[in-house]
Q: What sequence folds into this?
């Protein structure tokens, strides 16, 4: 992987921020179009997908494929067609004074880079509970995505943490697989919309543990139980289960956006684009989980990455 890129005065045609499936697909398409593009990725390529043990819903892999392996293949393919990748953290993007401010400056831990267009593909992450057992058992019963992992919990008893729309929608989705679902919520009323509340209350598979918080997740190699505390009575119990799905909010991740921030993000902090992945700031595109949208999956990230690359090329022309 390229470590020392020429960042002195060179103006790249495009810089991709983030090397998850959206960014890598954009990089593959830009590479094949011979666009002078540089990807800046803070860690390993693949982003959040690296946390997924098996992906069963990415077409073409009927037996499933491990998240890290799929992402390695994405990277190999993009690099094969000429994408340059550098590992560094991007702290800020802003307009550069040069060429009538038609050049962007990308500030990183390894100096400043310049480009004519940017694809923000820096993803997001589910809020963590930050409790013992959560990190160790992620991918071993702890999950942040029902669509991705639900099928592994067929006929199992699981816990869903959270009371917002995501928790309720995911709990309803998980009833397709799990034999029993207990929603653990820290208050005694749900936050989610009334229609979703009606559905969860009417679903015989869904039960509730009100005014409860999860103190820790217990298990040797797989989730075996959660330690619950009732915050009204202070009672603590070990509650047996094979899965814990945590939906206590999700947040997009991106560098400081300077004076472009108000044009780029919505009230929830996600980046707004049109159908071509173009933001309101000419030359800045976004794709993948960082975007305001309904479905966050590898397959949607790929489509958006390809779309962003296509319209970046059109923009450059
Ligand atoms: P959310 O609305 O912020 O709900 C987060 C839930 O997690 C809340 O019930 C909250 O409890 C709980 N929570 C937060 N931190 C916690 C902690 N440390 N420990 C235990 N519980 C914790 O997040 P969301 O459900 O992901 O939804 C995000 C936004 O997307 C919302 O505006 C939502 O309406 C929207 N959304 C819409 C749809 C749809 O329209 N179909 C679907 C999904 C999401 P409290 O209630 O006590 O704060």
A:
């Amino acid at each position: 992987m390229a470590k020392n890129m020429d960042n002195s005065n060179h103006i790249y045609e495009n810089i991709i921020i983030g090397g998850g499936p959206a960014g890598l697909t954009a990089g593959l398409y830009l590479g094949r179009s011979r666009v002078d593009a540089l990807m800046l990725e803070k860690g390993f390529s693949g982003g959040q997908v690296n946390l997924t043990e098996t992906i069963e819903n990415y077409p073409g892999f009927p037996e499933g494929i491990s998240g890290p392996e799929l992402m390695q293949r994405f990277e190999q393919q993009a690099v094969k067609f000429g994408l340059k990748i550098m590992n560094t953290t991007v702290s800020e993007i802003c307009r550069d004074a040069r060429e009538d401010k038609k050049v962007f400056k990308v500030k990183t831990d390894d100096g400043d880079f310049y480009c004519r267009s940017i694809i923000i593909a820096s993803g997001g992450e589910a809020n963590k509970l930050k409790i013992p057992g959560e990190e160790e058992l992620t991918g071993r019963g702890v999950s942040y995505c029902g669509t991705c992992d639900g099928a592994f919990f067929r006929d199992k008893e699981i816990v869903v943490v959270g009371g917002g729309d995501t928790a309720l929608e995911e709990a309803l989705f998980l009833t397709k697989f799990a034999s029993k679902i207990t929603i653990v919520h820290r208050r005694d009323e749900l936050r989610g919309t009334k229609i979703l509340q009606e559905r969860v209350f009417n679903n015989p598979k869904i039960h509730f543990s009100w005014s409860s918080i999860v103190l820790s997740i217990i298990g040797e190699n797989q989730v075996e139980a959660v330690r619950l505390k009732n915050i009204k009575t202070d009672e603590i119990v070990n509650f047996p289960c094979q899965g814990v799905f945590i939906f206590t909010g999700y947040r997009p991740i991106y560098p400081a956006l300077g004076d472009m921030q108000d044009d780029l993000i919505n009230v929830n902090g996600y980046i707004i684009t049109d159908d071509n992945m173009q933001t309101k700031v000419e030359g800045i595109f976004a794709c993948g989980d960082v975007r305001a949208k309904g479905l966050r999956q590898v397959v949607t990230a790929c489509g958006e990455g390809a779309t962003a690359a296509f319209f970046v090329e059109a923009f450059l022309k």
Q: What stands out?
A: The pocket of NAP is lined by residues 129, 161-167, 169, 186-187, 191, 213, 247-250 (CB under 6 Å).
